[in-house]
Amino acid sequence: MRDQYQEQLDGLASRLAGMCGEVAAALDKATRALLDADLRLAEEVITEDVNVDTIRAEAEEQAFALLALQAPVATDLRIVVSAIHGAGDIERMGDLALHIAQAARRRHPQPVLPDEVAPYFAEMGRVGVQLATKAAAVIRSRDLDAAAELETDDDAMDDLHRHMFTVLMDRHWNHGVAAAVDVTLLARFYERYADHAVAVARRIVYVVTGQMPGPLTV
Amino acid sequence: MRDQYQEQLDGLASRLAGMCGEVAAALDKATRALLDADLRLAEEVITEDVNVDTIRAEAEEQAFALLALQAPVATDLRIVVSAIHGAGDIERMGDLALHIAQAARRRHPQPVLPDEVAPYFAEMGRVGVQLATKAAAVIRSRDLDAAAELETDDDAMDDLHRHMFTVLMDRHWNHGVAAAVDVTLLARFYERYADHAVAVARRIVYVVTGQMPGPLTV
């Protein structure tokens, strides 16, 4: 009975880590769709988002069943509660990748991004994918040092996000208001994606230590 | 013992409803700060956000204690799990009101909004406050008809949000890129605030029926 219980707890973590892998792949594809005006890739991300929603629903059901049937306490209870939070965060990461893909599709065959900002979005995409991949690893390993790394990566994302505003506010911006609106929202989607990855890692810190790290500045 | 348990469950709902009241007041003040370039009101919202964060932490602790000590099942378990989700949504509503207040402070003593869009933001503020107030009532009453009303209010918010983009993309927009960036983000903050209020109401539907309503389109 306890073995089966432990298997269920491990299965829940494994499901969440897999979900992180899905949204890492989604952000990678969405970023390429955005940079290359690749409609096929954008459509893939849009179609596949339902998979993330399904895994989230399954993870929640599994967490609910664990609470109802096993009444976990202490660390095990923290694992289940953190999984409920984590599933929500990771689903949102998938939604944000979806929004990026939708922007690429909406403007197709035109590129969404002026050439001068494309490299920053390539970098935001890279950092975002790295954050989701690291969050998956932290869910599996519960390694606190690895969890702390996500904070540093998120600082890099915040710098890129702030820099986008500097570029937009520059008097030399000559791509008009529509492009500025797109860049504003897209940069925010990447930044929020990163925040949710950090939130997932912080919940793992809470699982291990019983304490939440300081609040995320958003 | 069971009486005390029921009191704890009711106390949790009451705490969440109170938290909704706090973020309704925050959005109301933030909107007035935005429309009237009122620095004092903006500062109030910024200072008071920590209260919402505190109530959220208390609600989570209370939910955790209920799970650990009472091992609720069925409807009671749904109440506690929904409270965990709801606390997260409502805290985020507070953060979004905070972001609006920060925008008002950042541009002070200049107004953030061009005159032509101010009435739309007044309306988004009104709808947002109404959504938070209705969410509080739904948490208390668990009335499914009242929960359904939030969907309609959210449609009104989505229409206002879409309309902002039409105004921004219009060739007659002559307020420059910086104002367009502010309007884009601010409109998104209101729209996300509304989404979170709807999510809270949907969790109450789940408490009562055991089924989540269809997914929120975001």
UniProtKB/TrEMBL annotation, chains A, B:
Q: Keyword Cytoplasm: yes or no?
A: yes
Q: Which branch of life, at top level?
A: Bacteria
InterPro entries named among the record's database cross-references: PhoU (IPR028366), PhoU-like_sf (IPR038078), PhoU_dom (IPR026022)
SUPFAM superfamilies per UniProt: PhoU-like
Keyword terms, alphabetized = Cytoplasm, Phosphate transport, Transport
Q: Which GO terms describe its biological process?
A: intracellular phosphate ion homeostasis; negative regulation of phosphate metabolic process; phosphate ion transport
Main localization of the protein described in the UniProt heading: cytoplasm
Compartment(s): Cytoplasm
PANTHER family (UniProt xref): PHOSPHATE-SPECIFIC TRANSPORT SYSTEM ACCESSORY PROTEIN PHOU (PTHR42930)
- Annotated NCBIfam families: phoU_full (TIGR02135)
Q: Which family does it belong to?
A: Belongs to the PhoU family.
Any idea what job this protein has?
Plays a role in the regulation of phosphate uptake.
Q: How does it assemble?
A: Homodimer.
**Protein's UniProt name:** Phosphate-specific transport system accessory protein PhoU
Q: Which organism is it from?
A: Pseudonocardia dioxanivorans (strain ATCC 55486 / DSM 44775 / JCM 13855 / CB1190)
